[in-house]
Amino acid sequence: MGRTLYMLSTLVLILSVSSLASSTSLKVDFYKTTCPSAEAIVRRAVNRAVSLNPGIAAGLIRMHFHDCFGCDGSVLLLAASTAGNPSERDHPANNPSLRGFEVIDEAKAQIEAECPETVSCADIIAFAARDSARKVGGINYAVPAGRRDGRISISEEVTQNLPGPNFTAEQLISNFARKGLSVDEMVTLSGAHSIGVSHCSSFSDRLYSFNSIVSQDPSMNPKFATLLKSKCPPRSIGDSTNPTVSLDASTPNRLDNKYYMGLKNHRGLLTSDQTLLSSHSTRRMVLSNAKHSSSWAVKFANAMVHMGSIDVLTGSQGEIRRRCSFVN
Fold it and tell me: Which of 58, 93, 199, 212 has an alpha carbon 20 to 30 Å from 162's alpha carbon atom?
């Protein structure tokens, strides 16, 4: 019975997102004739990596998010491929915290052996994010493909495009809206923080230097704050240690709606997490996602597909890289 329900829910997710493919030049089963094994190769690589290290799933989903806002594989490029100028990969938001590059490289090498210069690195990232969601959350969906790889990667663009850990709900809404993503999609995609970790430096101000009146963020559950202080003690001058803490300690390796339950209990780790409950613009969506796990999963799949279509290169634009870290 459990397997039947899983298959039915998977079918619903696939059907719910397949209609979105027509809104762009991307297509589901894009490689059906040119490289029919492409998606299976990526899925095997992801499954192997996540089985060995569940945290890789969060890394690959995050990689897709950091690449998208222009999904062209530019986040993979090394500085050596950008005339020595810092690339997106070198930006502090990505280096050293972004994980999963080796999974993309492994899948790409195997695909190149079977279908040379056919499958883009940008599509491999999108497939890997989907397969990660399936592996750790049972969220499966069809990925429209046909992206081409960009030849440019500029570190400064990361700051311009990606939301920061201290963003308010209004800043998040504005940031996502610039790329055509709705408020509900923003709240839905924030649920990816159900898995993964954050460095203490991204939220330590909530523990020790919130504002000029109080040192600790009053919106944070006091017991949760005490726990975090034990994991993230104050840093002295010259101290370079920067431990990590699970974004959602309740189910750290399961992509689910427990993230929203944590927000209800004032256990959101980042300012950009907890603000979703405190803001009138997003509070209702948080409470709904906390209550309805299945509908959140469907919305998450839809939002991932929409995000994956942002500012893509298609047709003769860009290139199909032979190696994901370097332009041809």
Answer: 212
